[in-house]
Write a structure and sequence with these properties.
- By secondary structure, the protein is α+β, with helices and mostly antiparallel strands.
- It folds into two domains: 90 residues, Roll (Ubiquitin-like (UB roll)); 228 residues, Glutamine synthetase/guanido kinase, catalytic domain (Creatine Kinase, Chain A, domain 2), CATH 3.30.590.
- The chain contains seven helices and 16 strands.
- Strands 8, 9, 10, 11, 12, 13, 14, 15 and 16 form a nine-stranded mixed β-sheet that branches. A five-stranded mixed β-sheet has the order 4-3-7-6-5, with helices on one face.
- A hairpin with a 4-residue loop joins strand 8 and strand 9.
- The N and C termini lie far apart (57 Å).
- One of its GO terms (biological process) is glutamine biosynthetic process.
Length: 366
């Protein structure tokens, strides 16, 4: 409880007098409800603030809410109500003490998952699957419409000096990246690292979670905080998978994944069986791995061609890389699908990977 005041009117001999009356009141909390809209081929984030009293910080105590789906490509104007179902909640680092970030699923008015709800497609009820996403992005200057650090005319020097770089003229935009990292840590997101990427103005953060749905929740909330940080600096965060055409690296969202089998099997044959399960399902994966991915998956710039499938130990030109750490630990670890684009929905990526791994013809006895 905290003391607050309300403005009241009281009658006196000379007329009406305005007075303040002290009340014991609940703490007002600001809940930022965040969801994905229905735009295609790439969904955007939307959010709005709900003021509630003495919120516990627990997602189960966040109420269902609604919004106008006709304004987000999710409902017709004549029946526009869509529901927001809170699924994940963390403190809002920009509103510390009274603010919370509430990730939501979009539901139809009858309570069923909306067609745009990728999270609802994940079949991982026991959280057996663990995911680590490597989210690449590019900081764009809205005035030049180029990555930050690019000259207004022409291009900077060729790629080479920018990856994991330090120093003026090589690492550009660090103040935005560092502020975003700090906000993520204050919120409680499980960020495992950041680094400058291969193209100037391109950066990456990594997030890990035990459970596919939570991994998606955390990526989306980290993206939200990144967009809001860019907004503060007047910079656009560009998630397009090929933000600059030509001899420049694209942006991906590499998906590192494991389940109990991959973490414990100790078998090269099991790993190969799981990798091979991906080959006949190229189309199913590419369909949800992000728009315009054909511009990025060309066989160049550390990618495999979009219409081909390959896997290999420590091979960054393969569709799926088997990390050297997995091999050194006796074939106990994880795999990395390098095909998802930076603009992909992590929920849909995780859903597709889980479905494919479950089809693998794992050798008997493992």
């Amino acid at each position: 409880m905290s003391d607050s005041f309300i403005l009241c009117s009281g009658k006196t001999a000379t007329g009406t007098k305005k007075v303040f009356r002290r009340l014991a009141s609940m703490t007002k909390c600001k809940l930022e409800y965040i969801w994905l809209d229905g735009y295609q081929p790439t969904q955007s984030m939307r959010s709005k603030t709900k003021i509630v009293e003495d919120f516990s910080g627990k997602v189960e105590d966040a109420e269902m809410w609604s919004f106008d789906g006709s304004s987000t490509e999710q409902a017709p104007g004549g029946a526009s109500d869509c529901l927001l179902k809170p699924v994940f909640c963390l403190p809002d680092p920009d509103r510390l003490g009274t603010g919370f970030l509430v990730m939501c699923e979009v539901m139809n008015a009858d309570g069923t998952p909306h067609r745009s709800n990728g999270r609802a497609t994940i079949k991982d009820d026991d959280n057996d699957f663990w995911f680590g996403f490597e989210q690449e992005y590019t900081i764009f200057d809205p005035e030049t419409k180029k990555p930050i650090g690019f000259p207004a005319e022409g291009f900077p020097g060729p790629q080479g000096p920018y990856y994991c770089s330090v120093g003026a003229g090589k690492a550009v935009g660090r103040e935005i990246v560092e502020e975003h990292l700090e906000l993520c840590l204050q919120a409680g997101l499980n960020v495992e690292g950041i680094n400058a990427e291969v193209m100037m103005g391109q950066w990456e953060f990594q997030i890990f979670a035990k459970g596919a749905a939570q991994a998606g929740d955390e990526i989306w909330l980290a993206r939200y905080l990144l967009d809001r940080t860019g907004e503060k600096y007047g910079m656009e965060i560009n998630y397009h998978c090929k933000p600059v055409k030509g001899d420049w690296n694209g942006s991906g969202m590499h998906a590192n994944f494991s389940n109990t089998t991959l973490r414990t099997c100790g078998s090269k044959e099991v790993y190969e069986a799981i990798c091979q399960a991906f080959e006949p399902r190229i189309t199913e994966h590419i369909d949800v791995y992000g728009a315009d991915n054909d511009q990025r998956l060309t066989g160049l710039h550390e990618t495999q061609s979009i219409d081909k499938f390959s896997y290999g130990i420590s091979d960054r030109g393969a569709s799926i890389r088997i990390p050297i750490a997995t091999v050194e630990k006796g074939w106990k670890g994880w795999l990395e699908d390098r095909r998802p684009a930076s603009n992909a929905d992590p929920y849909m990526v995780a859903s597709a990977i889980i479905a494919t791994v479950k089809t693998a013809n794992v050798p008997a006895g493992v």
